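Researcher: We're teaching a course module on how sequence relates to structure. For the next exercise, students receive a sequence and then see the predicted structure as tokens, so they can try to spot secondary structure elements on their own. Here is the exercise chain.
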Amino acid sequence: MNQPRAVVIGGGIGGLTAAVALHRRGWAVTVLERASALTPVGAGMGLTPNAQRTLDVLGLGDEVRALSAWQGDGGLRAPGGRWLSRTSGEAVADRFGGPVVLVHRATLVSVLASALPEGVVRTGTAAALADPGGDGHRARVSTSDGMWEADLVVGADGVNSGVRQVLFPGHPGPRYAGFTTWRMIVPAPGRPFAPHETWGRGRLWGTQPLKDGRVYAYAMAMAPPGGHASDDEKAELLRLFGEWHDPVPRIIRAAESDAVLRHDVHEMYEPLPAYHRGRAALLGDAAHAMQPTVGQGGNQAIEDAVVLAHHARSGHDTPDLAAYSADRLPRTTAIVKQATQTGRMIAVTSPAAVAVRDTAIATLSRLVPGLLLWSFAGIADWRPPERTYASGTAHPS
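Model: And here is the predicted structure for the students to work with:
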């Protein structure tokens, strides 16, 4: 039997993970990336234990962990600095088999790309799904260099996925979630601080350390879609968060103005009917864009990729994409809803409602130690459908 061929449209974290997973299952893989280089959008990414175990399936977990900052003590704060809830890396590790680790997205992309043979990734190549294929005929992908045929096409082309629009033209797609986000990497601060996320009135701030001493910071605020600061985004952040607790103002002031990234948040409020059609499958934001409020966008793309490869069986040129959809659709739909519900808590703006929210969180945290871990239950304890050396046991297929 000829070696089965897969074409991955999109060279982000999900697409590269899928390429590595399929390559290690014996597929000939080509990644077509529109951009001229593999330059990921964003700055930092928190890898939760579920994603780490998934990378272990590919033999990359230890390499990524060695390049990552392990999260220590931290928690949730109010803008004035009061701690509403606290947790620790040890508590996360005890509950879920490992702590959250923070990695620069560019680092993770580099690790994944390095695990692929030379020539697999083709940058500067815009691609479109021309035919999803089906039983008895292969899928077709069009590029400026001509047409590609494949036994499997992976749509990893993000929130505005062209592959999704071809597969499900009647679906409304992602909607604006009401929030815009900012992300940045800043130099190491002069004074240490505990990692934290802070919730205000319709606003959120997070500050987390990277292994090299720099800081990954992110913010979110309710805003009309498509907005931009009249001067620059650093100035906008100072207007929104400049009076918040230390180290928030000094982190903002330490940022380079042109290094502050701003992007609107979109979510797949109405789930797709499936994550496949014919011989084409979707993963990551193309399939289930979600708010970043539970930190699972990239983590779920990694899960998708390895589960997809699991159902693209070695020695078969017809992947079981129905099984892939059946595995992934219920789980990711539930996580999208959980992220939306968390976003609604952050979106509260009335002073009375914010006071009730914060008091409830603080009270419950005193009564139930480890309250913050509840949001990860059923998420961070997930195990991939193949044995990993980190878990020591196989998840039943």
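Model: If you want an answer key for the exercise: The chain has a mean pLDDT of 91. The first helix runs from residue 13 to 23.
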